[in-house]
Amino acid sequence: FLFPVSNLCGKCKPRDTDLLQPSLNFLYCSLHQTTPCSQQRAVAVLLSNVSLLELLQKVLECTWLRSPPSEPAYLSSEDALLCSGWLLVASLLLYQHRYNTKVHQTLSLDLTKVLNAVIFRKKKPILLLVSIMQFLRAVLRQNFSSSLLVIVGQNTAQGATQPQPSSLQNAALHPLASQQVFSLVVSLQNLLVHKDLLLSQAVVACLETLVEYLYVKNQDVALHVASQPWHRFLLFTLLSGGQKSFLQPEVLRLMTLFLRYQSSNIISQKEISQIVHEAAEANLAELPEATSRALHLFLCQV
């Protein structure tokens, strides 16, 4: 069914939401719920469909044209289609890189608009924010060098005739600018305060990938981002309310991130001891899989 469904999508227009949204979801599920051998063939089929890729380009561009709903949690049919589009493109980026699949049509996106979609949220539904962050993680992991994607709106610090410290920093972080990085980090921190489980998972994953990218590009910037004092306040905020335990997946992953980049001003020996104490008293067999995995990574980092 992959071939006819992808062809059907290529004949649609972005306004055909009732038909497109379930069709893109089918393509997304087909990529993820299959064997590696079949997955490689599925990626090749989708990336050879020029009409489908052109349609995805138009769908993503509708993100900048959408009118914000009266309620940020409200997911309209148009927003649902955008979510499906961003998630499918993120998956195509991931698997095209993994299998080195031939690309017949590139996608073009303005990096500034993608970042601003997260930085200036303008009542975007949570699921749409999560989908865009999933895409952002994919391009960060590939160092903005995917053969499927052309990034426009890059910073131009490399062309400065008299390099200043900020220009040199931007050149190291290219295609990101340092101000974009700091604005994105602040926005991600603010999103964590919402304490929505799906959003928290996406934000922590995005922070992890961002700091990894920065560490390769410019270690000073990465360590500066990881040691921001606001992170400590953020941890206490996440631990407030009904669930005070350190054994929450997003808290453990944040702690692991700070340990990895030696942010001793964020996480102290006292917090480390408290996590180990809670883990020792917990029934490990009954912990959710996400918690067990996050705890394992934390203890390995310690």
From TrEMBL:
Biological process per Gene Ontology, one example term: meiosis I
Protein name: MEI1 protein
Organism name: Phaetusa simplex
Gene: Mei1
